[in-house]
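Suppose a colleague, Dr. K., hands you the sequence of a protein chain of 96 amino acids and asks what its three-dimensional shape might be. Before reaching for any lab equipment, you can write down a predicted structure in token form. Begin with the sequence itself:
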Amino acid sequence: MGLVMTCRGRAPSSHPRGRGRRRRFSEADKRQILQEAMQPDVRFSEVARRYGIAERVLFRWKQEITPAAATLFATVEITDANAPSDPATNDREYAS
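The predicted structure, expressed as tokens, is then:
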């Protein structure tokens, strides 16, 4: 899809265990690969294999790139369910 990755040092096939050296991807490359992996009907495993990386690397990139603000929080009010409702201070009704 137009994205060319290079690996410094030995070619992956020349390593004794058949693996290459660790590559570093720029943020732009990571985003491009993730965008490709997140398309409908595309599997992370297929994209990972195409770029010669482990599927778990894609999941880690997704976590790193997803803003922490995307986590949603809800306001919770803890009350004593046995306390009688005081209409002067609270308009809520409690079920018994």
